[in-house]
Each structure stands twice: as structure tokens, then as C-alpha cells.
């Protein structure tokens, strides 16, 4: 039993050493998510500096009013930033695409009404 433990340990050490020294050949095959390296801001002033503001979505008023919140939603910012990078669009367009995508994911039409066939509206 002890012989097997030492053999497995020795083989694991040999394999780990071989993988370490040959990492330049296989490291590009390992998927690394983009958001690991992009630290997103966590306050309105940092959101402004990063470009998550525009004339239509003005964060300067929140900052001037002394808003104590931590800034925009982290998950939403990550998705908007991903759209901005992949589609090469500005913040307003990326935010619009993100909202349309979230509407579609929640079965809401482009006009804002639910697509549920059982939906009844009294207006």
C-alpha cells in the first residue's frame, strides 16, 4: 500500500513538473474569462471615469447630489462593458442592447409589454 502511495505521488510530481515546463505550449488553450482582469469600479465617480455615463444617462447629478450608493450594478456593468468591447459601440447603445437583451430573456416585447399569451391588460 505504501509503495502505491509513493508511486502515485512521484508520478504526480513528474506530471506536474512536465506541465509546468511545457505551459507555454498549452496555456493558450485554457479558457480565461475576460472579467477576471477588468476590475469594475464600485462608486459613481469611478463609473464616470470608466465611461459608464453619457448625456442621456448622466451620473454627474448623482455625484453632485452626494448619492451614497455604491454605483451601478456590477453584473450589469460587466455585461455592458462586454457589449461595448465586442460590438465597438458607445455606452448608450450598449446600455440599450443590454436592456433589450434582458427584456428578451424575461419574455418582454420591445414595446415593454409581456409576451405571455395569458396576459390581460385593462386600459
Description of the structure:
The chain has 123 residues and is mainly alpha-helical. The chain contains 6 helices and no strands. The protein has helices at residues 2-21, 23-26, 44-50, 60-64, 74-87, 91-105. The chain is elongated and about 80 Å long. The model has no long low-confidence stretch (mean pLDDT 80).
* Alpha-carbon Rg, integer: 24 Å
The main sheet comes to: none
Overall geometry comes to elongated
The run of helices and strands is HHHHHH
SSE class? mainly alpha
Helix share, percent: 40-55%
Number of continuous helical runs = 6
Low-confidence stretches: none
Strand content bin: under 5%
Number of strands: 0
| Average predicted local confidence, pLDDT | 80
What descriptors fit this protein?
6 helices; mainly alpha; about 120 residues
How does the SSE layout of this entry go?
Layout: H1 2-21, H2 23-26, H3 44-50, H4 60-64, H5 74-87, H6 91-105
Task: Provide a concise account of the structure shown.
By secondary structure, the chain is mostly helical.
Amino acid at each position: 500500500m505504501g509503495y502505491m502511495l509513493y508511486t502515485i505521488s512521484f508520478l504526480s510530481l513528474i506530471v506536474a513538473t512536465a506541465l509546468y515546463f511545457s505551459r507555454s505550449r498549452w496555456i493558450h488553450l485554457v479558457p480565461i474569462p475576460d472579467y477576471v482582469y477588468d476590475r469594475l469600479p464600485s462608486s459613481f465617480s469611478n463609473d464616470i471615469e470608466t465611461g459608464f455615463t453619457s448625456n442621456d444617462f448622466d451620473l454627474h447629478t448623482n455625484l453632485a447630489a452626494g448619492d451614497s450608493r455604491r454605483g451601478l450594478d456590477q453584473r450589469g456593468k460587466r455585461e455592458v462593458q462586454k457589449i461595448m468591447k465586442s460590438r465597438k459601440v458607445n455606452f448608450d447603445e450598449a446600455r440599450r442592447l443590454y436592456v433589450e437583451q434582458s427584456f428578451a430573456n424575461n419574455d418582454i416585447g420591445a414595446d415593454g409589454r409581456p409576451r405571455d399569451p395569458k396576459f390581460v391588460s385593462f386600459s
